[in-house]
Amino acid sequence: MNNSATSFVSAVALALAVALGSGVPARAELNVDITQGFVEPLPVAITDFYAETLEESKTGKDLAGVISADLERSGLFRPIDHGAFIQDAASLRKGPRFSDWRLINAQALIQGSVEMQPDGRLRVNFRLWDVFAEQQMTGLAYFTTPSNWRRVAHIVADVIYKRLTGEDGYFDTRLVYVAESGPQNRRVKRLGIMDQDGENHRFLTAGNELVLTPRFSPTTQEITYLSYISEIPRVYLFNLNTGQQEVLGDFPGMTFAPRFSPDGNKVIMSLADNGNSDIFTMDLRTRGVKRLTNHPAIDTSPSYSPDGRRIAFNSDRGGSQQLYVMDSDGGNVRRISFNQGRYATPVWSPRGDLVAFTRMSNGEFYIGVMRPDGSGERMLTKGFLVEGPTWAPNGRVLSYFRQTPADSRGRVTSKVYTIDLTGFNERELATPIDASDPAWSPLIP
Amino acid sequence: MGKAVLLSGALHVVTILILVIGLPSFVSLPEVAPPIPVELVELEQETDEPAPKPKPKPEKQPEPEPEPQQAEVRPAAEPEPIAPEPEPEPEQVALPPEPEPEPEAEPEPEKELAESLPKPGKKPTLKVPVPDQPEEPEENRLTSILRNVEKLKEQQAAKPAEEPEPSGAQVRPQASPLEQRELVRIVTQHMSRCWRIEPGARDAQSLVVGIKVQMNRDGSVRAVKITDSSRMAADAFYRSAAENARRAILSCQPFPLPIKRYEVWQEMRFTFNPSEMFGG
Question: Which of B22, B212, B251 sits opposite A207 (nearest CB)?
């Protein structure tokens, strides 16, 4: 009785409070949880960079074109067709009319200008605007020699990418790869290099010797790779700035599967002696060699974590070829792959959060990623032969190669691809001839 | 026989080509290599209109003069990292608000509360980005934002492409719960067409962003404020996610909310939480 009376009173009080509360505008606040969105490239407007002279205008257009292509290729941005633009480049110099850009749903606006300096250098300005917040997000100017405009475009694209995604860019980078030609049984393999967008392609080696598994130093413009000079497979170093090439160490057996340490001071690799492969490091300055594994199984394909504390590698010590992680001194070895099939070439992401790998299962090849503890395994792509993953320096995009089965005349084709770590946006990276084993450079210093 | 001769001829040509093209590349290496340095200067927020002198802006600019040489000048011989981080631009935060006709409804202790806002024009300004099918028609990126080619088929069979329920949302007990739930439903449904997420960012699933919004009666947004301003300044991924959420709100206005309940929705606190989209 008493109880029900109390509850009646409190019910009235509550109702009153609710009624009053809704009537009082004061600090009423509607809490809204947004948990559903969508994944789609961000529409961005990239205007031709403004210039006074005809020649500069061409550069301005080219700059915008390269920036636009970079952003588009990342899969995260959708450059809006210029035909839709309402405000022209000249009036844009007085500042954006944001409503014009909102009308075409440009979420970000990129404007710029090009001007030749009295000293012969090119000045490139650009500004990135948040159209809806009506704020400048960044604005920078660059000075360089006019012929270097393409690189400035990549640098600008990197700044935009970073400002909009929070992630470092990867457009001012290059890829080294193995360029292949000739019939299968007498394949000529040489090193090729190109910008990340396929431009400025060159060959680095003549093709007299077989070259395999090039890997970029994460800190310098150097690569390490495997070459069969005088029929013996050995790990070599190649300095891109000097063109100098040297064999790494003088070992009794063959050395292979090299990679740099994150600080660029060491090369970690496999050394095969008397039919057994183990993992070693070589200090590039002292040339001191250190053994990390000592196991009768085949241990190979080592790859450092970006902090240099751990190493992923593959080994058949458990019966089949699987991925393992160990501390950088060789201790604390634990297996991280447990799915069906065989695993190879683990590559630790420069971002540290994932390890990419090749997996062979049921007659198919996969490029996949998993966390360094083995969780979150996902297969990004598959095929008759997909192999050799390499990370863009920001750890967001992977490159690898894809080979087709031989056709009726025994010909195979091999192409380099890129894919976003979400598993979307797979694209071919065009090369003049067949290509395999790509290696992504760090951002160009 | 003829075939063999042809093949041999072709191979010879290839070999010669390789010699011709391949060999000099060693010699011409320097061409490949040292990237030409680029100097960098930061620009303040102003127009590019030719002006006799750059207006001295009140922002604390790390570089006092937006003109040339004071930037990191790279020696031509030894290129230096150029623009890796054009400094966290602290001035962005302190930007003077743009002319905003409406005075602040209620002055908050923090003065940067209301960031300058575009007034949405009469017209329903923007075509809301409709989450129509992306390139891969066979997949729904709403239900598989991280792709696994191996699991693709099972995934599609398991998860029908229907849109998941629009989130749990709680409200302060000021209006009738039913009414509030309905308002929240309208807002979440409306926003799901505007919030673009970036699933590949590091720890994307844990980037939870809070935003306070003040609304006008016509359903347009008067002011937005990202609540965690310190994390905004310190964490580039968070800043990106937060700015993205802010863009979602701004690009989604006007909100189709009933005017007679304006007092309930005139202030809203949004929490953007993508974890559910990653499968919880």
Answer: B22
Q: Are B164 and B145 in contact, with CB atoms under 8 Å apart?
A: no
Q: What is the largest CA-CA distance in chain A?
A: 102
Model ipTM over 0.90: no
A278 burial class (0-12, 13-18, 19+ CB within 10 angstroms)?
Answer: buried
Query: Which positions in chain B touch A210 (Cβ < 8 Å)?
Result: none
Q: Which residues of B touch A193 (CB under 8 A)?
A: 32
* pLDDT one-digit tens code per residue, A386-432: 999 999 999 999 999 999 998 888 788 999 999 999 999 999 999 99
Q: What's residue A16's pLDDT?
A: 43
Q: How far is CA B124 from the centre of its chain?
A: 22
Whose tokens are 């990135």? That residue is A128
Chain A contact set for B133 (CB, 8 A): none
Q: A443 CB contacts (<8 Å, ≥6 apart)?
A: A158, A168, A169, A170, A172, A173, A393, B81, B84
Provide the chain B residues 194-223 that lie in CB contact (below 8 A) with chain A.
194-203, 212
Using a CB-CB distance cutoff of 8 angstroms, which residues of chain A are in contact with residue B168? 33
pLDDT digits (tens, 9 = 90+) for A84-112: 999 988 899 899 999 999 999 999 999 99
The Cα–Cα gap between A143 and A125 comes to: 9
CB count in 10 Å sphere of residue A210? 17
- Chain B residue nearest residue A41, CA to CA: B196
**Site of tokens 């011709």:** B20
| Structure-block tokens of residue B218 | 């016509």
Domain boundaries of chain A, sorted by first residue: 9-17+41-165, 174-440
* Lowest-pLDDT choice from A160-164, A269-273, A314-318, B21-25: B21-25
Q: Which CATH entry fits the domain spanning A9-17+41-165: 1.10.560.10, 3.40.50.10070, 3.40.190.10, 3.60.10.10?
A: 3.40.50.10070
- Whole-number Å distance between alpha carbons of A186 and B7: 13
CA distance A327 to A333: 7
Pick A33's closest partner by Cβ from B169, B173, B246. B169
Which segment, A183-197, A207-221, A326-340, A398-412, is predicted with the most confidence on average?
A326-340
Cβ partners under 8 Å of residue B175, min gap 6: A18, A21, A22, A28, B183, B261, B264
CATH 2.120.10.30 fits A174-440, yes or no: yes
Decide if B176 and A22 are in contact by the 8 Å CB cutoff. Answer: yes
Q: Report the DSSP pairing between strands A42-46 and A108-116.
A: parallel
Query: B173–A207: do the CB atoms touch at under 8 Å?
Result: no
Q: Do B118 and A132 touch (CB under 8 A)?
A: yes
